[in-house]
Amino acid sequence: MKRGLSSVSTTRGFTLIELLIAMSLTVLIGGISYQFIDASLRAQTQGDAALSSLTAIEQTWQLMASDLHSSIDRPVVTPAVGADLLSVLDSGGSAEDRRPSMLSAQLGNLSLADLLGREGALLWFTRHGWVNPLGQQRSELQRVLYRLDDNGSLFRDYWPERNQQMSSMPQASLLLLENVQAIRISFLPYGQTPDDSAWLPYWPLPSAQRPTSGQGQAQGADPALNRFMPAAIRVLIQTPELGQVERIFLLAGV
Predict the structure, then answer these.
(1) CA atoms of 129 and 142, how far apart (whole Å)
(2) Element (DSSP H or E) covering residue 174
(3) Apex CA 101: angle with CA 109 and CA 152, to 5°?
(4) pTM summary value
(5) For residue 57, what pLDDT is reported?
(6) N or C: which terminus of the chain has fewer CB atoms within 10 Å of its end residue's CB?
(7) HEC string of 79-109?
């Protein structure tokens, strides 16, 4: 008896349309995955930049707080030789109208940058309590300058206080912040309520605006300090990562 012809099994392949659909889905999934990965990497990069900027600005605040709280009422010395650019701020050298102890970026028709020969000079003063761990023969007083260069870098320059010329080169410069878009410093005189109208964009005060002896003095505070140094300083810094951040620093004696 003859057996019937055995059936031959056939395997069906993919059609061109199915291949195109599969390839399209693969590309679509890959594109979506890339967008998620790219967004995640950008968010991580931005987060790292913001954290780095936050750390740097917090260190800047701490250094400014130490400097300003240790600032002292030490008038700028009169140069022994050469032109005295600060003479435009004097009016006879009386006790009520003496040379300033703190200088802002703009001093009437004179700029602090012109006086010091340091571009972007913002705030100059003298502080005490300069730590001397090596026991060097130097004063504990230190001149300090905060300045912002054309590249948006904020520096702290300092000098040992030796009654040297204002235009002398600093002993060292410390980079505090980079990519600073703007910085604004304002000053609150003693005896003023700290509302927006009381903050001034310049220091020292013109003689007509200084309180006379006994006015606006905090209990136990040095009366000379109350007239010739601000009660507080407000600093606003703007960066791409953090936007505008602001801090108010109280000076000693408040």
Answers:
(1) 8
(2) strand 172-177
(3) 60
(4) 0.74
(5) 92
(6) N
(7) CCCCCCHHHHHCCCCCCCCCCCCEEECEECC
